[in-house]
Amino acid sequence: MATLREVRQRIVSVKSTQKITKAMKMVAAAKMRRAQEAIIAARPYSKKMREILQQLSSVQSEGNPYFTSRPVERVAIVVVAADRGLCGAFNSNIMKTASQHIEKKYGDLNRAGKVQLFCVGKKSFDFFSKRNYEVAGKQIGIFSSLKYETALSLSQELIQGFLNGEFDVVEVIYNEFKSIISQKTVIEQFLPIASQVEKKETKHESQSDLYIYEPDKEKILDKLIPQHLNFHTWKILLESNAAEQAARMTAMDNASTNAEDLISSLQLSYNKARQGAITKELLEIVGGAEALAQAGG
User: Fold this and answer.
1) Which domain does 285 fall in, by range?
2) Average pLDDT of the chain?
3) Quick one: average pLDDT of 215-239?
4) Whole-number Å distance between alpha carbons of 14 and 261
5) Fewer CB atoms near the end CB (10 Å): N or C, the chain?
6) β-pairing verdict for 75-80 and 115-120
7) Residues 179 and 275 placed together within one structural domain of the fold
8) Same structural domain for residues 241 and 195?
9) Tell me: the pLDDT tens digits for 127-160?
């Protein structure tokens, strides 16, 4: 059984940990608020860009290299995780989903060394670099100061690799921000676009006839696609960043609550042990007094 001193030291230790988790929760809450504002601001632009692309893709997609599907012999997969831990199951869910997806869909290609991973976040790189995966690129330490140039660099690398035939399909696995308590793990095809952009029904196609395009639709489509892919990469990083901060805030809140419960339990144990020690001392005093009285009698 733990002594009073040990229990008291543990109470002090848990209280110190609780102060840290509360501070981390406040920091994560402030970062999440900014990240949430950024992703909410980016979503309307991304949605409208997607709608325009859907309309134009119904005009000319055949022959366009961004829409061309090839036999899948080489694959690039972007796995977006966090640079740090202490965010609950945020990182582990991504790693588990990515590993299962690769094994289920591209198991033979992966064993043949034809699946290339682009790891975003230190946790992603640490996980896959220590296992039987070919890591072709990494982006570490980007979420502390997230910039559009980072997304542009990653997007251009993926686009050029696809157009040059280095890989036949590009997929992205990341956490999408839904709410403070909810993040959704998403597996999304980045290239080719043909299977990514949903072609709407005739209603959508008929609406495109109401617009006059200058220059022609084909030239606009060629210019719009790279911009769409660049901004979509940026949106993915924003989604993951907001989801990470929300997961960390929730995890630190749970840790603080658990610490409070543990402190209450330890305090109760301490009080019981202290009361038992006092009772024992009183019994010893009473017993000693009775022994003296009997000896004097």
Assistant:
1) 4-21+253-296
2) 88
3) 88
4) 10
5) C
6) parallel
7) no
8) yes
9) 999 998 999 999 999 998 999 999 999 999 999 9
User: In the sheet that 169-179 helps form, which strands lie side by side, from edge to edge?
Assistant: 134-139, 115-120, 75-80, 169-179, 182-191
- 42 shares its domain with 150: yes
The residue among 119, 156, 117 whose CA lies nearest residue 134 is 117
Do 103 and 154 fall into the same domain? yes
Size of the chain, expressed as the number of residues it contains = 297
* Residue 238 in this model has a pLDDT that exceeds 90: yes
The catalytic position among 38, 78, 82, 87 is 87
* Residue at 123: amino acid letter: K
On the question of pLDDT at 250 being above 50, the answer is: yes
Specify the higher pLDDT residue, 195 or 150.
150
Does residue 243 sit in the same domain as residue 257? no
- State whether 13 and 107 are in the same domain: no
In this structure, the answer to whether residues 126 and 100 fall within a common structural domain is yes
Let me know: does 192 contact 69? Beta carbons within 8 Å.
yes
Q: Is the dihedral of CA 280, 285, 291, 294 positive or negative?
A: negative
Domain count, the chain: 2
87 is annotated as an active-site residue: yes
Q: Is 172 in contact with 154 (CB distance < 8 Å)? A: no
Identify the pLDDT of residue 60.
56
CATH no. for residue 188? 3.40.1380.10
pLDDT in tens, 253-281: 999 999 999 999 999 988 888 888 788 88
Given a cut of 90, is residue 204 above it in pLDDT?
A: no
Tokens 């004097």 found at: 296
Q: How far is residue 150's CA from residue 10's CA, in Å, rounded to a whole number?
A: 45
